[in-house]
Amino acid sequence: MKFLILFLAIFLIKEPMIPEPTCWMDGKCRLVCKNDEDTVVRCLNRKRCCVPSRYLTIQPVTIDSEPRWTLPLTFRPVRKKNKPAKRENKNINHG
User: Fold this and answer.
1) Pairing state of beta strands 37-42 and 22-23?
2) In the record, which residues are listed under signal peptide (predicted)?
3) Which single residue of 27, 43, 64, 87 has CA 20 to 30 Å from 95?
4) Which residues lie below 8 Å from residue 20, measured CB to CB, with a gap of 6+?
5) φ, ψ at 10 (rounded to 5°)
6) b or e along 61-94 (b: 16 or more beta carbons within 10 Å of the residue's beta carbon)?
7) 6-53, pLDDT tens digit by residue?
8) How far is the C-alpha of 28 from the C-alpha of 19, rounded, in Å?
9) 3-class SS at 92?
10) Residue in 64, 4, 6, 29 with CA at minimum distance from that of residue 40
């Protein structure tokens, strides 16, 4: 009985271990990033996605224009060609 009470006391005092949500490139969602981490994007819970600096070797690039493949397709109206009137068959056998 004493063992059960001791076990419950230790179990209730201990802080619950909630894993941090992960984000881009093995990053962690945190309020403040550590010294060896950089913020890249925001997580779903509005915290910073802290990525280890060793993964960030290339500087991010901002594209000012919209590449053609990102724009929606616009279709031109198709013009219908005027069909010539049907010709009557001149090779009619009168017999």
Assistant:
1) unpaired
2) 1-19
3) 87
4) 28, 29, 30
5) -70, -40
6) eeeeeeeeeeeeeeeeeeeeeeeeeeeeeeeeee
7) 777 776 676 666 666 678 777 889 999 999 898 888 888 889 999 888
8) 10
9) coil
10) 29
